[in-house]
Every structure is written in C-alpha cells, then in structure tokens.
Amino acid sequence: MARRLPKTKWFVADLVMEIKVEGDARNVVHINTVLVRARSLEHAYQRSLKLGTSQAGKPYLNPVGRKVSTRCVGLGFLGDVSGPLEHGVELVYAEHVGVRRAKLARMVRTKKDLLMPPEKRKQQNTPDYANGKIARDYENYLKSFT
To answer: SS3 for 34-93, per residue?
Structure first.
C-alpha cells in the first residue's frame, strides 16, 4: 500500500537578517522574503526560523579582513498563499487606509528604478559585508584572462 503524504501548502515568510561588520557600529538589515512549504501555520513558523538560521551561515572575512557575521533576528511576516503557485497568484498584500496623494505617489517606483541592476541600487556608504574569499577568487578569475 502506498504511503500517503501529509497535506501541505505554501506560506510566505519575511526573514529579518542582521549583518554586522567588525569595527563598524552600524548594522545592515535584510528582509528576505521566502516561500515555505508546510502542513500548518505553526509548522511554517518552525520551518521559517530554521531557514533563517541556515541562511545566516558561518562568519567570514570581508575583502579588508574584517569579520562579518549574520544572524536571523526572527520573522517579520508569516502568511499563507491563498491560491496555486502560478503566474499572477497573490502572495502577500498590504492594506493602507486614508493614504494622501503625496504618500501614494511615493509608494510607486519608476520603471528606471525597478529595472536598475541590484548592484547599482545598493546604497553608498554601507558597511562592506562582501565575502572576501569570493571577491579574491573573482579577481583572480578575471586576471586569468589577461
């Protein structure tokens, strides 16, 4: 007789990840939105925290030799996906009431902003949390062509 798999569904979770660079008082916080497959909301909560912990990884050195550490602070959001995973399915929504025109205009990004490559979107003067080993390996890779 075939074993019956437990019924699961999809959930969306926002993992709040804090990055700290040794010698820099500032932190960097990423909100990583992930899909989680689970049997229940409680199961999704546990699986989401486990994902956050695994995404944190081990500390590493940045290109200038400073220790970079990442930790999952917790979840900023957890909700179920109401429809099948297909083009156009609504994953999450936010509701705002009484929004003035100026604030509404700030909620919409221009096409230019949306299509800008992520590396150009990065704010200037942020702590350098790049992985030093990866940066050196890439630099050596590029040198191999010269």
So the answer is: EEEEECCHHHHHHHHHHHHHHHHCCCEECCCCCEEEEEEEEEEEEEECCCCCCCCCCCCC
Give me the sheet containing 60-61, strands edge to edge.
Answer: 27-38, 9-21, 67-80, 60-61
What pLDDT does 22 receive?
A: 96
Q: What is the mean pLDDT of residues 4-24?
A: 90
Q: Is residue 27's pLDDT more than 90?
A: yes
What dihedral do alpha carbons 88, 93, 97, 102 form, nearest 10°?
Answer: -70
Check: pTM over 0.85? Answer yes or no. Answer: no
**CA–CA separation, 92 vs 46, rounded Å?**
20
